[in-house]
Amino acid sequence: MSLLGLCLLLGFSAGQTEFPEPVTVWECSFQSPLAGAPVFFPSTENPEGVLTWLEDGRIVLIEGAGTIRWEKPIGEKGDASPAVGDLNKDGMPEIVTATASGIVVVLTAEGKELWRYPLGGDVRDWEAPCLADVDGDGSLEIIIGNMRGWVSCISGMGKLLWRFKADDQKASSPAYIPANPASAGLVIYGTENDHIVAVRSNGELAWLSRHEGQYGRSTPVVGDLDGDGTYEVVSHTSYNNPRSRVLALDATTGNLVWEAPINLHGYAGNAIADLDGDGKNEVLVALRSNTIYCFDHTGKEKWHTITGGQAYFYSPAIADIDGDGKCEIVGGVRDTNERGNSWFVLSDRGEFLREYPIPGGSPATPLIGDINKDGVLEIVLAGTKAGLLRCVSFGGKSQNARLLWVSPRFDAARTGCVVSNAVHRTLQAPTKPGRRDSLNVEWAAPPTWGRNALSIKAWPKETKDLVIEYSTIDPFGRKTTRVVDTYGGKLPAFLAVDLVGRGTHLVRVRAYRLGEYTSCLAEVVEKVKLGSFQTFAKKMQQDLESMERSASVLPAEASHMARLLMERKAQRVNALAVLERMAAKTDWNDQEKVDELFREIESFRTAVRMDLTLNRHVGKMAETDPKAVLAVWEDKNPWDDSPVLSEEATPARKTRVSVWLYKNEYESAAVNLLNLTAEPLVVQLRVNPAERNALLLYEVIDVPRNDGSTVPDALAELNSAATITIPGGGARRLWTTVNGKRLEPGSTELPITLLPLGKDTERAEVVVEASVESLDLATAPIFRVCNWSCPNMLKVAGVDPSQIAVAREHGMNVFVTSAPERQCDTRGDLVGAVDWSVLDEQLPLMGDDGFLLLSLNPVAVPEGVEPFSDIHIAAERARLQELAQHLKEKGWGPERWALYPVDEPGLFGGTRIRLYEQLAGHFKRAMPNVLMYANPSGFVTPENMAGMVPLTDIWQSEQGLLRRQPGLAQFFLNTGKPVWCYEAPGDVKGLRPLGYYRANPWMAFRLGLSGTGFWTQFYKGANEKDNDLWLSWATSEFGANYVVNDKEVISRRWEAFRDGIEDVRAFLLLRETAQDPRAVQRHPDLVRQAEDLLRTDVDKATQRAWECGDITRFLRDYEMDYSEICRIRREVARLTQQLKAE
User: What is the DSSP secondary-structure string of 677-731?
Assistant: First the structure.
């Protein structure tokens, strides 16, 4: 029996009532899975069809009878559910959506494309558009967020009106409160960095409300909860948080009205409706824990119901579907529950009425309305992964039916607002402060085309919790506003102001106190007049002339350098001419073209800055070594992302690099190489043959990110000729890793000769000075590292399994694989031959200190044998004894392996926890001494883990969860069993090598844990683009390393993780040494120093990383101080050696 089959037997009785089976009205299936959430067309009040995205990049309109009216290929996939409304006042609805790459697409009712508008940032369904008459001109505008934090307001004709940003990551789908006699309209959205924000109809800040947590995927909704005639805003946390909760805010001020706890986070799961007809609205929240909560208007929980399955992604629908006068709640989950069902019907009091299956899961909000005009309500459900739309009915009449929430985001325009007679009294534009001089600004350089730095020279006296709003209005009337929350006084050094276009730009800076927006503390208004592009070009040409002047005075021996400068200048002059023609052709009413010009200007300015730096370094080299064709210098911090060629560089023909390390560890450094000629230079790197195993060399490859930037991350082994090719005037990084397993304690020089092919006499040299301490990591306690990569996983993905040795050299010693499946007969005897070949192939690769996690299903039983019966237990006992004996014969005793029955119990609420308890209990009954492994994640509390405690021998929980809930880490430690942790990050190329990867083992140590790990060493999805880290945009972007052909390419991040593992093993050795009774008795002062170092100094070094959440890593500086890391490591060596010597 499969694991799924067992799951179906594990469910509890839901106590279903006699709620009827629905009648299937029609089905419409596609060859492609669905994407996003389907919506009614043209309105929720009078639906005539259903719009849906398909994964293959088509948008389809299905008529009310279930037939396809049209389908439109868009050219790429989209997740953003369409919004529908009349944009151009022609009396016909338009369809507005966005592709995953962030292109707004507008179609007619017949599927004809009208126009497109690129947002400059990816869009998922959490950022889908809404339509509203924002400016009060009688036409609808489009309001949409994107993954880079921008919220844009676009006219119905495709013109940008304004854009607004409060954080750099994920701006949620906006809600819109319509204008009323008391006030203009208001745009509400959430960010991933503690904020819910209200924006005025003119694109200025109305209020910013700070609440710890992420709100960028929990799309807000608006309604008058308490019937007092004013609106409230409702949202909830959208990512793991120790205080997952629902918030209700005053829509006028942003002040907190109430908050209520929930058992896990959710996404677009909010809904507002008056369920009991008392004139007060209830709040419904559907969560990833398969739970629907209901709160009254004061935030008091009325009920919650756990349906099972794998996560609500969208809100439920609320309507009287059977005509009994009472509303039902209809919701669907991403995958099936224990009984194979995906959508559920609850009463208005949360009673479980019935559950139903649909292929492919059904995470989208069900659509409820009379779609085929037969006078009866229909429900349209999405079988998302199966590519299915199913229309069913329970027979409820449509006339006068109670339809409270029947579509995603409430209506076809996706406003998220339950419109009533309520008003919001939007705060008036802030009054000007009495003192202007309390906020002084100064341009770091005269403003020019492109990005400019506006420095703040004087702040208001009270800087705690300042909120800074700064905006620009360009000469064409477009407004761009940014907001900075200073978080208790973390003041920005400067504000980045982007200016493009001839004419006057209005720049305004306002300072507010958090929560006080009726008046600003200070305001500065600057008028910046930009000249023509020719004026900008002239300034650039003047900068470039310095290169020609430098070339003209270089000595004759440096003619190759002079030629480099002249050619580089000529290249930039040509590029400037192209840029000038581009500016002349730019349509200043086309924001896409203006943005494109801005990007090209910034790219050009960056290139010129690098050229001027090159010019200065070439001049220095010409003075000291005019014949040199290659210059080298040490990268002082190989872990940062600074450009290879920087002002701080000290190029020379020879450089020395110092590497300090423990015995039996690896430690890295980097060297920068600069080609001083105009032609490509092929450089061969030569190392003494006797030292090749002690010095590993890699070329650092800059890989693209999805925001257009690059990051120095991939470490490519040198080719068989050991060469690196450097373009003319270009620079490259050489990564050097010293292998302390190949060196004895003391100082060793490891020279590298750099031979420019064809210019043999102009060699350069790098000397790596390796200082190896006597502290030997081979004697340190073991620290477990599990990265969810194993030989058979590598083999399946087409990667050479022998590369598991690379993983072992990077600290990995816990491996996940599977055991052979077994089955039994009706007497419980095992039947069939067992195939050990796959497992036996893997075991020798895992090392003498390896530990095995075995994923396996229970023995399959034939028909007539009850699962988990005595017969089944007997068969399982025989199977586990067989497995244990085989592993023992291969050198793997029972202490070196454990069973891994369920992945991430708690991820979707209690479902997987119950499954774990059932399966682990089954295996323990069969073999009490078999070790059991659990990696709880998601909805994890001591209370819901209680049943797992007696069954579990090894814990490995999510590190972020343990950092946010220190009591949870102690709960696991109190079980007396080994406790490890892990992380499963996405967007990995943007994570800091030190602050995230090296810090990971340090924080495991700080928590008192004995192991750590990552999902995953590398990852390959079903589709080519799923996780190709070489691409600028990958769907998943998991994995620490890259894959090319049949080989892994390691990353700088992975080197940092290994360094962190080695650091912690040294910490453990110091702790073990300091806890020796002889040390405690004889040298209490050294012991106190050791304790203080391992507690206070380690905590302080990791504090910024400790405080960062899963999303805020992309928003805040959490990098560790490299010099402090080095200091702590040296102190560990000093104290350990002194204690051991004594």
Answer: SSS-EEEEEEE-GGGTTTEEEEEEEEEE-TTS-EEEEEEEEP-TT-EEEE-TT-E
Q: How many helices and strands, by DSSP H and E, does the chain display?
A: 18, 62
Q: For the purposes of burial, counting CB atoms within 10 Å of the CB of 57, is it exposed (0-12), middle (13-18) or buried (19 or more)?
A: middle
Residue 165, token pair as written in the block = 């940003």
Encoded amino acid at 587, one letter: D
- pLDDT for 239 equals 78
Is the peptide bond preceding residue 1016 cis, with omega within 30 degrees of 0?
Answer: yes
Listed residue (1089, 1051, 1068, 955) closest to 1001, CA to CA: 1068
* Residue whose structure tokens are 């949620």: 172
> What are the structure tokens assigned to 802, written together?
């022998």
* Residue-level pLDDT at 422: 64
- Identify whether the C-beta of residue 233 lies closer than 8 Å to the C-beta of residue 249: yes
Percent pLDDT > 90 in the chain is 73
Between the CA of residue 966 and those of 239, 634, 801, 960, what are the distances in Å? 18, 41, 38, 10
Identify the CA nearest to 120 among candidates 595, 605, 479, 499.
595
Instruction: Name which of 581, 756, 694, 662 is nearest 1126 in CA terms.
Output: 662
- Looking up tokens 């080695």, which residue turns up? 1062
Task: Quote the CA–CA distance of 116 and 98 in Å, as a whole number.
Answer: 9
What pLDDT is recorded for position 1047? 81
Contacts of 290 (CB under 8 A, 6+ apart): 306, 307, 308, 309, 310, 311, 312, 333, 337, 908, 909, 911
SS3 label, residue 589: coil
**Dihedral pair phi/psi, residue 748, rounded to 5°:** -135, 135
End-to-end CA distance of the chain: 62
Q: How many CA atoms lie within 13 A of 1022 on its CB side?
A: 0
Q: Which residue numbers in the chain have pLDDT < 50?
A: 1-15, 436-437
